[in-house]
Design a protein that fits this description.
Blueprint: H1 2-10, H2 15-28, E1 31-32, E2 36-38, E3 46-51, E4 58-63, E5 68-72, E6 82-84, E7 86-90, E8 102-107, E9 114-119, E10 123-128, E11 133-139, E12 144-149, E13 158-163, E14 168-172, E15 177-182, E16 189-194, E17 201-206, E18 211-215, E19 222-225, E20 248-253, E21 259-264, E22 269-273, E23 278-279, E24 298-299, E25 307-312, E26 315-320, E27 326-331, E28 337-343, E29 348-353, E30 358-362, H3 366-375, H4 378-395
Parallel strand pairs: 2-6
Antiparallel strand pairs: 1-30, 3-4, 4-5, 5-7, 8-9, 9-10, 10-11, 12-13, 13-14, 14-15, 16-17, 17-18, 18-19, 20-21, 21-22, 22-23, 24-25, 25-26, 26-27, 28-29, 29-30
C-alpha cells in the first residue's frame, strides 16, 4: 500500500489504481464484523436485501412472513461498536403488508423516497418510503419471483417482472400500466436483470433451463438465447440452446456490464460474454443449488480481479470471477443463506438467512479504526451526532411495527 501511495504521489499510477488496489484488498479479506451488527426486526427468514444506491446509507429487507424493514447503516454514535437501527417496518398489523413471502425488494435507483417489493402473494407494490403506503399495487396471475429496475435508464422507467407466468411483464412506473410483454420462455421465470451498460438490454432465467437476452426496442424482443455449448454439437439434444441443465434461478451482471453470471440447479455457475453471448467455460466447480426460488448472489465493485459471493447452505463462498478459483468461505449464519449484497464504497457485504439474521461482513481495518478513534475529538462527535439527528428528523419516516 505504501508503494501505491508513493506511485500515486509521483504521478506514476493512474488515480484509480490506488482505489482499485484497496477495494480488491477489502473484497478478498472479508470477515464477520466484530464492531457492527443489525437490529433484528423480522420474525421469519430474510429473503432479500437492497442498499440504496444514492447514499449507501439505508437498507431495505424483506422476509418470509411478508414483513419489510428499513435500517439506517450510518454510525450516528461516534463509537466503533454500534448496531444499525431499524427506522421503520411494514409489520403484520399494517393493512398493506404482503400476505405471503417477500421475494425481492429494491430501492428506486435515483431516490430513496420509493422502493418496490414483490411477493408470492401475486402482487408487486411500489411504496412511498415516508408514509409506508403503496403508491401503486400490481396483481399478477401467479407468484412473483423477481423484479428489477434499470440502474442507468434515462429513456425509460420500466420495471421487469418475472413470475409463474411464462411471459415477462414490463411495468411503466410513470403511467402505472403494463406496457409490454416479452414472450420466449416456456416455464416460470425465476430471475430478471437489466444490464448496467445498455439500458434497453434485459436478461431473464427460467425453469425451462434457458437464459434469454432481450432488446426491448426490437419488435421480436429476444436478442439471443444463450447456449452452454456455444453452438457445438452435443450428444444430448434436450440441452441445445439451454444455459444450464437445470432451472436458472440466479443472474448477475458485472458492474461494467461486459460479463454476466448465471446460476442453475445443475449446481453450476457460468460466466458469459454479453457482447456475443458466448460461454467463457470458466470452471467454478460444483456449487450446490437446490433452491426453488431466486438465489441472490453478489459481485464486487471496482476490484481486480472481480470477486463473486455465492450463498452455499449456511456459508458464503468467495470465487475469483475470471479464474473460477475458490478464494475463501465465510461462516457465521446458522441456516440457509438466501441473499447477499455488496456496498460498493467500502466493499462491505450484507447477507440474509433463514436464521432471521442479517450479518455484516467487513475487511480488517482495525488499525484504521484505532487511528480514527484516537484522533476524533469529543466536540466533533457531538456536532456529528447533532447533525445526524436533524437529518433523521427531516426524513420523518413513519413506523408501523408489530
Amino acid at each position: 500500500m505504501i508503494n501505491y501511495l508513493s506511485y500515486r504521489e509521483l504521478g506514476v499510477d493512474a488515480p484509480l489504481s490506488l482505489t482499485r488496489a484497496e477495494s480488491t484488498r477489502r473484497a478478498i479479506t472479508l470477515g464477520l464484523s466484530k464492531h457492527r451488527d443489525v437490529e433484528r426486526r423480522n420474525a421469519g427468514a430474510i429473503n432479500t436485501i437492497d442498499i440504496d444506491p444514492v447514499d449507501g446509507r439505508y437498507m431495505v429487507s424483506g422476509g418470509s412472513v411478508g414483513v419489510i424493514a428499513i435500517h439506517d447503516l450510518h454510525n450516528a454514535t461516534g463509537k466503533v461498536n454500534f448496531t444499525c437501527q431499524c427506522l421503520c417496518t411494514v409489520g403484520r398489523s399494517n393493512r398493506y403488508v404482503h400476505k405471503h413471502s417477500v421475494e425481492t425488494v429494491q430501492w428506486y435507483p435515483f431516490d430513496t423516497g420509493l422502493f418496490v417489493s414483490s411477493s408470492t402473494d401475486k402482487t408487486l407494490k411500489v411504496w412511498d418510503t415516508n408514509t409506508l403506503v403503496p403508491a401503486d399495487t400490481y396483481t399478477f396471475d401467479g407468484s412473483v419471483y423477481s423484479h428489477h429496475m434499470s440502474p442507468i435508464a434515462t429513456q425509460h422507467n420500466l420495471l421487469a417482472v418475472g413470475s409463474q407466468d411464462v411471459m415477462i411483464t414490463l411495468v411503466d412506473l410513470r403511467s402505472g400500466s403494463d406496457t409490454q410483454i416479452l414472450k420466449g420462455h416456456t416455464s416460470s421465470i425465476l430471475a430478471v436483470r437489466w444490464s448496467p451498460r445498455e439500458e434497453f438490454i434485459l436478461a431473464s432465467g427460467s425453469e425451462d433451463n434457458k437464459v434469454i437476452l432481450w432488446d426491448i426496442r426490437r419488435a421480436k424482443g429476444s436478442l439471443m438465447v444463450l447456449d452452454q455449448h456455444n453452438g457445438a454439437p452435443t450428444a444430448s439434444p434436450e440441452s441445445v440452446n439451454t444455459a444450464h441443465n437445470g432451472h436458472v434461478n440466479g443472474i448477475a451482471f458485472t458492474p461494467d456490464g461486459l460479463h454476466m453470471l448465471t446460476f442453475g440447479t445443475d449446481n453450476r455457475l457460468r460466466l458469459w460474454n454479453t457482447s456475443n453471448g458466448k460461454n467463457t467455460f470458466v470452471n467454478y466447480g460444483k456449487i450446490d443449488n437446490d433452491s426453488r426460488k431466486e438465489v441472490k448472489f453478489a459481485i464486487s465493485h471496482y476490484t481486480n480481479p472481480g470477486v463473486v459471493y455465492i450463498p452455499q447452505d449456511a456459508d458464503i463462498d468467495i470465487f475469483d470471477l475470471f479464474s473460477g478459483e475458490k478464494m475463501n468461505t465465510l461462516r457465521g449464519h446458522y441456516n440457509q443463506v438466501n441473499c447477499c449484497v455488496t456496498e460498493p464504497y467500502y466493499q462491505d457485504m450484507y447477507s440474509g438467512s433463514n436464521d432471521r439474521n442479517i450479518l455484516i461482513w467487513t475487511a480488517d481495518v482495525r488499525g484504521e479504526m484505532v487511528y480514527e478513534e484516537d484522533t476524533r475529538s469529543s466536540s466533533k462527535n457531538t456536532a456529528r451526532t447533532s447533525f445526524t439527528s436533524r437529518v433523521a428528523i427531516t426524513d420523518a419516516w413513519s413506523s408501523d411495527e408489530d
